[in-house]
Amino acid sequence: MSKRIIVSSIIGVVVLGGTAAGLAVASTQTAQKLTVENASTRYVPPTDAQAGSLTFTADVSDDSGVRSLKVLAWPASSDLDPTEAEMRSVESATCRNTSADTSRCTYNLKVTKAEAAELAPGAWHISTLATAEDGDTKFTPHTSEFTVTR
């Protein structure tokens, strides 16, 4: 066997090994990504008989687990444009593990008739800030939308 064939074979193995290692790293990095999915929002206006409600639900996943999900509802007609830093001081959803790396997070808010009267009618946005157990964060300025009616 010629030395040239052996050297070419070794180079081929190294190149293929490097490519496989690169693919393994890429797939590992994809698996670590913090996500907020399946978001839904429901607004029920209050009646004379009972308070209304705002309910936001989302599935949050990260391979390290989920620490928290901060939630902010705001009217689309406002000039509000929340930032990730501002989201750190808003209320948190309640998160319950559905697996080792996924939690179902729910934010519930009761709305009285007096409070509803002060809400801007029309489109509203939900912004979220998810935090994983390893400290990674994911800020989503428009996670979900809903409509306030009277």
Could you describe the 3D structure shown?
This protein is of the alpha+beta class and 150 residues long. Helix content is 26%, strand content 45%. It has 3 helices and 7 strands, in the order H-E-E-E-H-E-E-H-E-E. The chain has a 4-stranded antiparallel beta sheet. A hairpin with a 7-residue loop joins strand 1 and strand 2. The longest helix is centred in the N-terminal third of the chain and has 29 residues. The chain is globular and about 45 Å long. The relative contact order is 0.22.
Q: Separation of termini?
A: 86 Å
Count the strands?
A: 7
Structural class by helix and strand composition: alpha+beta
Sheet of most strands: 4 strands, antiparallel
SSE string: HEEEHEEHEE
Strand line-up across the major sheet: 1-2-5-4
Contiguous low-pLDDT stretches (5 residues minimum) are 3-19, 21-30
Overall helicity: 25-40%
General form? globular
State mean pLDDT (0 to 100 scale). 86
* Number of H/I helices: 3
